[in-house]
Amino acid sequence: MQKTLSIIKPDAVKKGVIGKIIDRFESNGLRIAAAKKLKLSEEDAKNFYIVHKDRPFYGELVKFMTSGPVVVMVLEGENAVAKNRELMGATDPKKAENGTIRADFADSIDANAVHGSDSLENAAIEISFFFSNREIC
Ligand code: CMP
Predict the structure, then answer these.
(1) Domain 2-135: which topology?
(2) Can you give the pLDDT at residue 21?
(3) 0.85 surpassed by pTM
(4) 23 three-class SS
(5) What's one GO MF term for it (predicted)?
C-alpha cells in the first residue's frame, strides 16, 4: 500500500468537476484517505513548487495555483504513486492519452486539472506539506 498527494487545481475546481475527478480515483482502486478544499497563498504555492524555482514557468505556475481554490487529497492504494500518474495522463494535456483526467478535463500545460506526486519520497514530503497525521484516515 502506498499513499500519494493529489491536487485538483483551480481550473478543474472552477469547471465543477471535483466529483468526476474523485470518481476516477475511487473507481480505480485509490481510496481518499484525506481531503480538503483551500486557497493557496503565494507563499504556499512558492514553497510547494520550490523544486521548480529556476524553471521559466515558475512565476506563471504560482500565479495560476493561487488563482482560485484547490482540493488537496491523500490517495491510498496499491502502487498509488504510479496509479495516480497513470490516471492523470501526461503533464501536457495535448500529449495525454485518451481517457486520462488531463485529456478529459485539462486545457493547457498550466491549467492541467491535477497534480500528483512523482515519487514515493516526494509523496511523503508533499503529504506532510498539507496534512497532519491525525487528518489522514
Ligand atoms: P504539476 O504536476 O503540478 O507540476 C508542475 C507544474 O508546472 C506542472 O504540473 C504544469 O502545470 C506546470 N508547467 C508549466 N509549464 C511546464 C513545463 N514546460 N514543463 C513541466 N511543467 C510545466
Answers:
(1) Alpha-Beta Plaits (3.30.70)
(2) 98
(3) yes
(4) helix
(5) ATP binding
